[in-house]
Amino acid sequence: MPDDSRLRLIRALGDTLDGLDVALCAFDDSDCTIAWNRTFFKFFPEHDGYVHEGEPYEANLRRFYNQRLDAQELPNIERYITAGVERHRAQTRPYSFEHRGLRVHVSSLPIDGVGRVRVWRAEALPVQNTHPAQAAPAGADIHEPGYLRSPVIESTELFDRIPDGLMICAEDQRIQWVNQPFMQMYNLSDRAVAAGKAFDEVYRHAWSVEGQGDMAPFYDGLSILQEHMRFAGAPFEVPLPRSRWSRVIAKQGSDGTVFYAHVDITEFKRQQRLLAQAERSARDSEAQLREKSILLEATLENMDQGVAKISATGVVELCNRRALELLELPAELMESKPTLMNVLAYLRARGEFKGASQDIQDMLLHSSGGIDQQQVYDRPRPDGRILEVQTVPIKGGGALRTFTDVTQRKQAEQQIRHVAEHDGLTGLLNRTAFLQALQAAATDVHRLGRGFAVLYVDLDGFKPVNDRYGHAVGDQLLVWVARQLTQAAREDDLVARLGGDEFALLQRGVSDRESAYRLADRLVQALGRPTQIEAHALQIGASVGIVLSPSDGAEAEELLRKADSAMYLAKATGRGCARIYGT
Ligand SMILES: Nc1nc2c(ncn2[C@@H]2O[C@H](COP(=O)(O)OP(=O)(O)OP(=O)(O)O)[C@@H](O)[C@H]2O)c(=O)[nH]1
């Protein structure tokens, strides 16, 4: 037994064929009856009331022959039945026979999943008699001669109700009849307009009524239509006005009649177009993506910055050529997609972080790559270069790390800072830098619990050197003074040239005046010693003013001013000596 959906299909086919006065009886693979239509009983009234589901074909034939054979022939019935069953199973070609005064044409079609469907129709009559208008009126007696003279349609109502267009053509391809949906599809106001015409004429008519603007689809459609109607046959698809489309499917009738179904596939075509567009744009964006990724890869490989991508699980997924160079990482290690922990362990074992601050070392020790905000730090490398390491979190986890060689930039910054903070002639701190250092020391006094002294040094008798030997000699003498001061000071003391022939010294860790005075006295002695510059024997002197912090103040400017005034007192009391502020 075929499945339910196939059975339903066969029954629907039977109903449709009823509309065409075609009888149907279907049998399963074991030749048992499974479906039949009303027309079947019109042709074979002997079965009416007897045929039933599951009835073997043999029983059907027996009834048929019982009705047909005369007394003389009846003894041969078993032979006829056996031959009939054989025929039924193997039948490939239609044949005709007379039955109850009619000439009937029978075809037997094997159908997959069903079995075999037999269809009978009365022999075709000349074309002019097949127009539905000439069909016999409904309810006419089937035994009346001429009733089945219309093989086409008894009632058009059924075909007007189906959603697809239907066009019935005679053997010469002239249209005999069209249904209502066909008329709508091809803009026909009257069925009679199509009768006797070829399909291409109807197609031209449809475009002449509605087609506007771009007529290219019409010419395309016309050539498709003509090609298929003349040579290739259906199915084919033609464009209609207002961007509609029709798919034409043909079904050959046994008498040369051809049934054409015209299915509106506008929506299907629209979907197809959208799909093609989507595919095209997907292809385009795929190509764009591919291009972008090639570009990105080339950029990554050729950029001056090292780049590494760390996944959410801490794996170094990407590491460009420059990163390998800057960190001197072996390519094989990075190709193995190691974790960041592994890479850091490798670098640590190689002594990479020895010069880095404790903060950086601690951070690297605990880094698995996961961060929630941007991080930047400078990492000194064992070879003296400095890398700026910047890490930015990636949406969805993981991080992107860049390595920039900032050695030159740092050196330039260092130079600028040095120039800004030092005296160009002697290389000592300048006044601004000294005041800053002084302020920092004053602020630290309480924290460290240690005071300091400031010694203000002004040369005695420097001007005459300039006047007598010139500025160049004076300059060299100033450099000599700077050296004397630096030698007299301790390593963590600061020496500065405040301007002209004025110098200052910050003496750290001093709480008593005597210590400061001793240093001042040493300076006076050192600077009072004769020296030789460019074969000139020179001798100058120095006057020194001393202040102590915190006892004399905690502000840099104030301390310097007080030291300056102490120095003036020293000058006033005969030069070549030191005076402590307030004494
Ligand atoms: N060669 C040289 N001379 C400088 C420089 N800056 C300032 N001077 C000179 O240093 C001298 C400072 O003047 P004074 O302080 O009167 O010189 P002094 O002879 O030591 O006088 P007293 O301080 O009163 O003992 C001036 O002649 C300035 O022109 C410098 O960079 N190079």
UniProtKB/TrEMBL annotation:
UniProt-listed CDD domains = GGDEF (cd01949)
Q: Which SMART domains match?
A: GGDEF, PAS
| Top enzyme category | transferase
The organism's place on the tree of life at top rank: Bacteria
Gene3D superfamilies to which the protein is assigned, alphabetical: 3.30.70.270, PAS domain
Q: Does the keyword Nucleotidyltransferase apply?
A: yes
SUPFAM superfamilies (alphabetical): Nucleotide cyclase, PYP-like sensor domain (PAS domain)
Q: Which UniProt keywords apply?
A: Coiled coil, Nucleotidyltransferase, Transferase
Coiled-coil ranges (or none): 268-295
Q: Quote the InterPro entries the UniProt record gives.
A: Biofilm_reg_signaling, GGDEF_dom, Nucleotide_cyclase, PAS, PAS-like_dom_sf, Rev_trsase/Diguanyl_cyclase
Listed NCBIfam families: GGDEF (TIGR00254)
Record protein name field? Diguanylate cyclase
Where is the organism placed in the taxonomic lineage, from the top? Answer: Bacteria, Pseudomonadati, Pseudomonadota, Betaproteobacteria, Burkholderiales
